[in-house]
Description:
Blueprint: H1 2-13, H2 20-44, H3 51-72, H4 76-86, H5 98-115, H6 119-143, E1 148-154, H7 159-172, E2 175-183, E3 188-195, H8 199-212, E4 217-222
Antiparallel strand pairs: 1-3, 1-4, 2-3
Amino acid sequence: MNKLATFEQFLAGQTPSIEMTDFAINLILTFFLTLLISIIYVRFGNAISNRKMFSRNLILIALTTMLIITIVKSSLALSLGLVGALSIVRFRTPIKEPEELAYLFISIGVGLGLGAGQRAVTIIGCLFILAVIYLRQRRNRTDGEKGMHLSITSQKQGDDMLDNIIGVLKKYSDEVNLRRVDETGTAWQSDFFVSFSDYDNFSKAKFELRSLDSELNITFMDNHLL
């Protein structure tokens, strides 16, 4: 009983002390590092989804993580309370792109590191990771991945339609890569990366795709404009 009372007094006696100057510096560093992460993601990412819209969440996630870690790091009671609070959180929107998950972890890592006061390690680690991403993507683009993203939505179920679409794309395009297929009870969506040697093949492919089903929703997107 005495041990339980002592433990309760220990939890109640802990009062987190936060230096406001350090907190402000870490907050600013978190913002600028995550802003840099967002710029790299929008410029060099390969995700099919709208990268500009997704990148806005990275700053908020990093700042929120940094704030939470700053508050709970000096208090065991708050740390235990955080575990209970997070147990009721449910994420309803799945992350479909592994690349999106990678950038989320980078942003969370920045928030964790700066929230814990590890400035040097966090800054060096973040800049190194971004440098690796930049150099890798620069090399890939120098090698010349030329093309665009194609998104097709159909209300007709079955694999025959998808096979027909792939057949048309292979007929007129130089490169066809199926990136993603999403299916629901009433529709499905497929995303491709395709490249055409000239505009004539592009027009023929678009016309033949439309002839497969007049209700197909076809969207061609430049990778840099996502």
